[in-house]
């Protein structure tokens, strides 16, 4: 008999079918008592995760100015180098033109200083002027040279800044957010839009350091995307970052997302399953709770179970579920051993 079957049988035997309980309105409710099972080492643990883009970029303004052109909106697909947004650049263009004019004026002064210096050198050779007069002419020529270089640098900066008024897509992707509108004032550092590359996505989870220490064969790592894909999926690659966060004592695990999964987008909920090694992990020694899958209530984003309180009232309690084994589903949190779970949630909802 397979190990999976043994676990299912052992768990089923741990769920004691109780006699029908009587709720507040004397309606019979069939319940099961939750008991801990799986005292032996677990073979895997599940953790909540999130889908994120490998390449996600927030484009910000580098120069101030009013937004005069906004060519995209959230959800648009863009090509690499495509113009996305334009900021009013009239003032910058005038500054660049003024800088160029200053450079031309300085170059004219340099020509005059250069010719004057050559004349002073000839006069000095004929001993018509003193050494100090020649030195002053040389200093004037050198100062004019330095001024030209400084103005040329300023003109280069002005021309470079004029390119900051047009925001282009750094790569092909999808615009995920546009927090500005036409006419808004862009300031340096203000986010203009966010985009990501949908062709490269991954699943990321924060794993406790105790689980990292007992992590088994990473080729057995699986993940699931509730509502987007059926069953457990195999990642294209598994990466365990070699750094543990000092505040949360968790390490980040990244799973490569296979291509072709429709509807998946950054921010989507996921759940990963990590295999444990020889069972020496503290997490592997924990007991596991299972309930029949038919007892689970799903309402929008909420997942819960009807649990009887000491007065016999069936109260809906939010739970977090793990994996399934046959007709059973693991409960990761929300119930405790000894709780009485109603097997017929529709009946429990009516009698309350």
UniProtKB/TrEMBL annotation:
InterPro entries: Beta-barrel_RND_2, MdtA-like_BSH, MdtA-like_HH, RND_pump_MFP. GO terms for molecular function: efflux transmembrane transporter activity. Residues 55-191 form the Multidrug resistance protein MdtA-like barrel-sandwich hybrid domain. Keywords: Signal. Pfam families: Beta-barrel_RND_2, BSH_RND, HH_MFP_RND. GO terms for cellular component: efflux pump complex. Residues 99-160 form the Multidrug resistance protein MdtA-like alpha-helical hairpin domain. The lineage of its organism: Bacteria, Pseudomonadati, Pseudomonadota, Betaproteobacteria, Burkholderiales. Residues 1-23 form the signal peptide. This is Efflux transporter, RND family, MFP subunit. Belongs to the membrane fusion protein (MFP) (TC 8.A.1) family. Residues 203-272 form the CusB-like beta-barrel domain. It comes from Polaromonas naphthalenivorans (strain CJ2).
């Amino acid at each position: 008999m397979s190990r999976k079957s043994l676990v299912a049988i052992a768990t089923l035997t741990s769920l004691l079918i109780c006699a029908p309980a009587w709720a507040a309105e004397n309606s019979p409710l069939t319940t099961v008592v939750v008991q801990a099972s799986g005292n032996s080492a677990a073979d895997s643990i599940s953790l909540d995760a999130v889908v994120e883009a490998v390449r996600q970029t927030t484009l910000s303004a580098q120069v101030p100015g009013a937004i005069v052109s906004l060519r995209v909106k959230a959800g648009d697909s863009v090509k690499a180098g495509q113009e996305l947004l334009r900021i009013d650049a009239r003032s910058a263009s005038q500054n660049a033109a003024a800088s160029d004019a200053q450079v031309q004026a300085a170059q004219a002064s340099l020509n005059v200083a250069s010719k004057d210096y050559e004349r002073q050198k000839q006069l000095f050779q004929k001993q018509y002027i003193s050494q100090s007069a020649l030195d002053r002419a040389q200093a004037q020529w050198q100062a004019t040279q330095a001024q030209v270089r400084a103005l040329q640098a300023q003109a280069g900066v002005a021309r470079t800044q004029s390119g900051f008024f047009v925001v282009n897509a750094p790569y092909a992707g999808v615009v995920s957010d546009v927090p500005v509108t036409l006419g808004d004032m862009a300031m340096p550092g203000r986010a203009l839009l966010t985009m990501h590359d949908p062709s490269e996505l991954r699943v990321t989870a924060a794993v406790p350091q105790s689980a990292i220490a007992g992590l088994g064969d990473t080729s057995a790592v699986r993940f699931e995307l509730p509502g987007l894909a059926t069953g457990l999926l195999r990642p294209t690659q598994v990466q365990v970052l070699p750094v543990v966060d000092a505040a949360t004592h968790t390490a980040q695990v990244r799973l490569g997302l296979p291509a072709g999964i429709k509807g998946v987008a950054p921010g989507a909920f996921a759940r990963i399953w990590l295999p444990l090694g020889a069972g020496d992990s503290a997490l592997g020694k924990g007991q596991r709770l299972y309930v029949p899958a038919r007892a689970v209530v799903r309402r929008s984003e909420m997942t819960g179970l009807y649990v009887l309180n000491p007065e016999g009232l069936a109260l809906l309690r939010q739970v977090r579920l793990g994996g399934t084994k046959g007709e059973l589903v693991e409960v990761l949190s929300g119930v405790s051993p000894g709780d009485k779970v109603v097997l017929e949630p529709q009946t429990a909802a009516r009698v309350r």
